Amino acid sequence: MRTIYFFIIEFLFLSFGIDVYSTNLSKGDIVVLTDFPYYLRNDIKISFTADVTTMGTFYIGRGYRSASGIYVKIDGTKITPITCDSSGNEIEKASIVNDLAISTFIKVILDVRHTTKYQYKCNLEIQSDNGKKIVELSENWSGVEDPVFVKSATSDGIICSNISLCATSSNFDKPIWVVGDSYLSIHNSERWPYYLEKRGYYNYLIESVSGGATQVYNDALVLLELGSPKYLVWCLGMNYGSDVDADTPRSSWKSEVDNIVSICSSRGITPILATIPCVPKKNHEGKNKYVRNSGYRYIDFAKAVHGETYTAGVDNWYEGYLYHGTEQKPDYVHPTALGAQALANQVLKDLPEITYLIGDVNLDKSVNYNDLNDLVLFILGGKPQNFSLFQADIDNNRKINVGDVTKLVNILKK
Ligand SMILES: [Ca+2]
Ligand SMILES: [Ca+2]
Question: Into how many domains does the chain fold?
Fold first, then answer.
């Protein structure tokens, strides 16, 4: 088997997508989009086109045989959704009939987007010689944290040429990006984004992976090549080593935070830092002092759960906030549902902008023609009441002008 790694060949600045091209895909080959963020969650659109030499089985999606992998297997007669268990073993779901005659070309589009609470569903579209087929898959893609790939099966795989694999995300337009680790999950009631979603607030990009540390920092550098949020919320810290003391944060964490702040500064992005609750085996006092003294805004997660001080081997959090795990599998790192609610409340307190609706320029929690009137009034030099500059820059280019009016009209037309 051959593994092919590609680097960015072409940016599509209008859609913020990444394309990768190759001459062919043979049995056993896998193509991975190495310059597209691996840990991007939520909305994502993947497309694959190829000239078919011999139709056979192939897989397309995210995380081939990885712990949170989710993808589809397509062959000449059926489409089979696949999820992977925590060991990366494939679990095949009920197949859907594939009645397309695929002999000269194929185009596959996977469009994953938020549908209902805690659910990210995937629309699959396949085009070929005799038409197209569109199906909505029933699996929930909200837990995915893996790279985009296409793979030809080893024994009966597709053979094709002129392949193109492309990925993009509507999330790149979101004004707030949150980068972190296993604390960030929308479908787990022991994580804070769950409680934001419960209140209807999910309008932000999440980049995260369990155990996330420097690998997420590196992924964030890739992500920042694809767009610029207004706010970059930096929640990494738990999975770095203990601080030397309360005045000396872990050097690897500090150098990465410093670099992210520097990138934000040069790009006009507002960094939002975060304190990290101390846990019985990890001292984050140095990181937290550094965050508090940085002069930047921050979310005070340590305060939210009473994890500000470190005592080796002792749970200093509020009663019932820290998950202890089981005797066989102790935890002492993650919050309980109670702890997660406290963290969510702290996010709402320290970053109220995360609740804003795109286009709600008068901040009355609905988007309608009053917002359009106020936006036009402001651009013409008037002074609308309760006008939010943050909300008015709908196209996220740090200017408030006719481009934002066009965006708002498009939102209202939907
Ligand atoms: Ca409004
Ligand atoms: Ca603008």
Answer: 3
pTM for the full model? 0.90
**Is 55 domain-assigned?**
yes
Q: How far is the CA of 373 from the centre of ligand 1 (A)?
A: 10
Q: Can you tell me the distance from the alpha carbon of 87 to that of 280, in angstroms, rounded to the nearest whole number?
A: 28
Low-confidence residues of the chain, pLDDT below 50? 1-16
Distance between CA atoms of residues 74 and 64, nearest Å? 14
Judge if 277 and 135 occupy the same domain: no
CB 151 within 8 A of CB 59: yes
Residue 397 CA: which ligand is closest? 2
pLDDT digits (tens, 9 = 90+) for 169-193: 988 988 999 999 999 988 899 999 9
Ligand 2 centroid to Cα of residue 414, in Å, is: 20
- How far does residue 339's CA lie from ligand 2's centre (Å)? 37
**How far does residue 399's CA lie from ligand 2's centre (Å)?**
4
Q: How far is ligand 2, taken at its centre, from the CA of residue 125, in Å? A: 33
Q: Judge whether 363 lies within some domain.
A: no
| Type of residue found at 181 | D
Is position 361 within any domain? no
Query: Of 215, 200, 250, 225, whose CA–CA distance to 360 is shortest?
Result: 200
Residue 206 near residue 186, CB atoms below 8 Å = yes
Q: What is the pLDDT of residue 12?
A: 32
> Which residues surround the ion ligand 2 when the cut-off is CB under 5 Å?
393, 395, 397, 399, 404
Q: Are 181 and 145 members of one domain? A: no
Question: Could you tell me the residue range of the domain that residue 401 belongs to?
Answer: 369-413
Q: Report which bound ligand comes closest to the CA of 412.
A: 1
Ligand 2 centroid to residue 206 C-alpha, Å:
22
Q: What is the pLDDT of residues 220-230, one digit of tens each?
A: 999 999 989 99
Domain CATH for 192: 3.40.50.1110
Q: What six digits make up the tokens of 38?
A: 């691996």
Ligand 2 center–CA 18 separation, angstroms: 24
- Same domain, yes or no: 222 and 348: yes
